[in-house]
Amino acid sequence: MTQQRSNAAQETVDRVRLALGQSTAPQGRPGSGPAPGGRREFDFTTLPEYEILKIWRAVGDITKIGNPFYRLHDGRAGNTTSIDGRTVANFSSYDYLGLNGPPDIAAAAKDAIDRFGTSVSASRLSAGERQVHRDLEAALARLSGTEDAIAFVSGHGTNVSVIGELLGPEDLIVADAVIHNSIVEGAKLSGAKRILCPHNDLDAMERALRLNRARYRRALIVVEGLYGMDGDVPDLAGLIKLKRRYNAWLMVDEAHATGALGHTGRGIAEEQDVDPTEVEIWMGTLSKTLAAAGGYVAGSRALIELIKYTSPGFVFSVGLSPPVAAAATAAVDVMMREPWRAAALRRNGLALLTKARAHGLDTGLSIGASVVPVIVGNSPQTVMLSERLLERGFNVVPAVFPGVAENQARLRFFVTSEHTPEQIDAVIEAVAEELPKIRSSSSFVSTIAGR
Ligand SMILES: Cc1ncc(COP(=O)(O)O)c(C=O)c1O
After folding, report:
1. Which residue, judged by its Cα, is nearest atom 11 of ligand 1?
2. 295: CA distance to ligand 1 center in Å?
3. Run of H or E including 80
4. pTM of this structure
5. CA of 42 to the centre of ligand 1 (A)
6. Cα 411 from Cα 363, distance rounded (Å)
7. Are 92 and 52 in contact (CB under 8 A)?
8. What are the residue ranges of CATH 3.40.640.10 in the chain?
9. Beta strand pairing status for 410-414 and 148-152?
10. Residues forming CATH 3.90.1150.10 domain(s) in the chain
11. What's the 181 CA to ligand 1 centre distance in angstroms?
12. How would you write the pLDDT of the chain (451 residues) with one tens digit per residue?
C-alpha cells in the first residue's frame, strides 16, 4: 500500500515535471541517494513526499490557483464565513445543525471553565473525573440508545485506539472500501487480517466472511452510518443479519450521521428504525454536529468498562477539556429538544442534491443529507473549480488524489440546517457555469492529470 502510494506520487511528480517542461530526472531522485557530506538524511525537504508538495505549490503559482487547503477564517464558520475579510457562503462546515454558536451552548462551556478550568491535566484514570464528563457520557448513551458511552479527546484517535486494542493478529476485520482513514489506521494497528469490500456491497462482505471467518478468533464488520465521502448510507438491518450469521461484531461510525439522519437526528438506527442495541459498537465524533472536539464509543456497559481500563488512547491520554465536554452535552440537549434543526438539514440536503442533478452534475450515490459530492474526476480541475467558486463568494473545499482516486476527485458540499434556499441555488448555478468552462480550457491542467 505504501509502495503503491509512493509510486503513484512519483508518477504525479513526473507528470507535473513534464508539463512544466522539466526533465523527469531519473538520475538520483530526491531522498533516494546517499547524502553528500552525510547530512542530507536530516533534511526533510529532500524527501520525495516533500518534493511533491513543492511541485504542487509551483503548479499553483504558474496556474494562479491558490491553495484550497488550510484557508484562514476570521471567525466562526457557519453557513457563511469570513476569509481575508470577505464574507462568503460556506459549504465546508461540519456544523450540521448550527450548534456552534447558540448562546446557551457557549454559556455551558463558559460555566465549565469557571467551575473546572480549561484542562483536567491528565488521564481521568489518575487525575479523576469531573461531573461534566459523566454528564456528557450519560447524554451520549441516551442519544445512542445504549447502556453507556465513553468520550475520548479525538474522534480519529477513538477509532485508532478502540479498534487497535479490541482486535489482534488472530482476528478478522471486514470493512467498506471507502471507510474513514481512522478506521483503516486502527485496523492496521491491530494486526488483524483486513478485508476491504467494494462500497456498500453486502454480498461482498458476506463472501469475505464465508471464506474467512472460521480461521479467525474474533470478527468485526465496520461501516459508516452516513459515508463522509459519498453521502450515502448502509443497509443496517442487512448488516445485522450478516453479523449474526457469522458471529461478528458490528461497528458503525456515526460521524456524519448524527444530526443528519432520523427525525430527531439520532442517526442511522433512528432513520432505518433499527434497535440500536443490535449494534455492538457505536462510534461518533463530538466535532461535527456536537460543536466540540473529541470522539466517543457507545454500547453495552461491559464494552465501555473494558475500554475505560484497556484502550491506550483513553487510559494514557488526558480527559476531555471541561468546556469541550460541557459544550457537547449542551449540544446533545439542544439537538434533541429542537428537532426542527434536523428537519431543516434534510430539506436543505435534498434541495442541493435535486438542484445539482437537474443541472446534470454527478452527485454519485448521495441521498441528499449532510454530504453531497459533485464529482469532477480530475484533481487539478477540482481545485480550479474550488478557486473559481471562492472568487464568486462560495467556500467549497475539494477532495482530491490521494484522498480519493484521481477519477473520483470531487467538491464535497457539507449542508447545514442554516443554509438558505438562495445560497443553495446560487452555489449550484455557479458550479454549473464554471465547470464546463474549466473542462474546456484546462489543457495544462489536463496534462498534469494525465488526460
Ligand atoms: C467517518 C469519520 N470518522 C472519524 C472522524 C474523525 O473525527 P474527528 O475529526 O472528530 O477526529 C472523521 C472526521 O472527519 C470522519 O469523517
Report:
1. 155
2. 8
3. strand 80-83
4. 0.91
5. 33
6. 10
7. no
8. 103-337
9. unpaired
10. 80-94+340-448
11. 8
12. 344 545 655 666 566 666 555 555 544 444 444 555 556 668 998 898 898 888 878 878 877 788 888 999 999 999 999 999 999 999 999 999 999 999 999 999 999 999 999 999 999 999 999 999 999 999 999 999 999 999 999 999 999 999 999 999 999 999 999 999 999 999 999 999 999 999 999 999 999 999 999 999 999 999 999 999 999 999 999 999 999 999 999 999 999 999 999 999 999 999 999 999 999 999 999 999 999 999 999 999 999 999 999 999 999 999 999 999 999 999 999 999 999 999 999 999 999 999 999 999 999 999 999 999 999 999 989 999 999 999 999 999 999 988 889 999 999 999 999 999 999 999 999 999 999 999 998 655 554 544 4
Which residue is associated with the grid cell 471553565?
A: 113
The residue contributing the CA closest to ligand 1 atom 10 is 155
Which of 152, 161, 162, 182 to mutate for ligand 1's pocket (most ligand atoms within 8 Å of CB)? 182
CATH 3.90.1150.10 at 80-94+340-448, yes or no: yes
Cell of 113: 471553565
The class (CATH top level) of 103-337 is alpha beta
DSSP summary character for residue 73: B
